[in-house]
Specification:
Layout lengths: L1 E4 L8 H6 L6 E4 L2 E6 L2 E8 L2 E5 L3 H7 L6 H8 L3 H9 L10 H10 L5 H15 L2 E2 L6 E2 L4 H5 L3 H5 L6 H13 L4 H6 L3 H9 L6 H11 L10 H10 L9 H12 L3 H10 L1 H7 L1
Antiparallel strand pairs: 1-5, 2-3, 3-4, 4-5, 6-7
Helix pairs in contact: 5-12, 11-12, 14-15
């Protein structure tokens, strides 16, 4: 087992970070979390300011959990009103994970119109059927399927993984990415609006999915995904009489209010959604 001692001025909450709906392949067993990232099975727990983990090295853990980010500085940039101030206080240590872009994209295509248990089931079935077995002691785990492995599938093969109508979207998008070497790097080099346009051109990718992939997969922290909870919060708590009817109006207001780290504001608001809506 390896350990990392967290600096006292850089808060991190492992449980909040892994349970707030960003990722779908982590499972909690008491104080331990187990997840598959790429072809690596990671087990990790937090005791105060110490992380104990196996399956990965320290640079990987720091990178994946954004531990190299100056969280107090990020949160100071979005701490612009009483509501956000209280939300930050109650969810201190929540960080946005740096996810592999392809896995993030495919996962969020599977996530449309589904709850978290349903999303986890679909991704688990896809990995078991089309991924590769990876070592994890006595437990059998599977890597997330590559674009090449899904590009060869017929939609009927994918439907057995409970993805329903999303099967054709997954297969088509996998083929595009499999046939485009350097796709990830080319998207990273684009402006926010151009990268968003590229994602929106893919089958099964609407505005919310594109914004989630930009935020979680490409670390475009200005991205502000809008689901039903964020829509309610923005209308009730930040609308100020505005007619916020369209997705773009709400996402645009989020970027306007919270700036370069609007995505962090979105994630904190989402994590605190039930308390916020009770008080709004």
């Amino acid at each position: 087992m390896k350990t990392i001692t967290l600096p006292p001025d850089q808060p991190f909450d492992l449980h909040l970070t892994l349970s707030c709906g960003q990722v779908f392949r982590w499972v909690r067993d008491c104080d331990w979390w187990t997840g598959v990232v790429g072809d690596t099975v990671v087990r990790i727990r937090q005791d105060g300011n110490r992380l104990t983990f196996s399956g990965a090295d320290r640079p990987f853990i720091r990178e994946y959990f954004h531990l190299d980010g100056d969280l107090p500085a990020i949160l100071a940039g979005i701490d612009c009103d009483t509501l956000m101030h209280e939300t930050i206080r109650k969810n201190q240590g929540l960080r946005i994970i740096r996810q592999p872009p392809w896995e993030c994209l495919a996962s969020y295509i599977c996530a449309t119109y589904a709850n978290i248990p349903g999303i986890k089931k679909r991704i688990s079935l896809l990995s078991e059927k089309f991924g590769e077995q990876v070592s994890s002691g006595s437990e059998t785990c599977y890597s997330f399927p590559t674009p090449d492995s899904l590009a060869e599938c017929l939609p009927g093969d994918l439907r057995s993984c409970s993805v329903g109508y999303r099967a054709s979207f997954l297969a088509d998008t996998a083929r595009i990415i499999a046939d485009s070497p350097g796709w990830e790097e080319s998207v990273r080099e684009l402006s926010f609006s151009d990268a968003r346009r590229v994602l929106l051109s893919l089958k099964g990718v609407g505005k919310k999915v594109a914004d989630c992939v930009l935020l979680f997969g490409f670390q475009r922290y200005e991205s502000f995904p809008v689901d039903v909870w964020i829509e309610r919060i923005m209308k009730h708590c930040y609308g100020s009489g505005r007619e916020l009817k369209r997705y773009e109006e709400i996402a645009g207001l989020g970027r306007e209010l919270f700036g370069a780290y609007a995505g962090y504001a979105q994630e904190y608001l989402f994590c605190d959604r039930e308390r916020i809506m009770t008080g709004c």
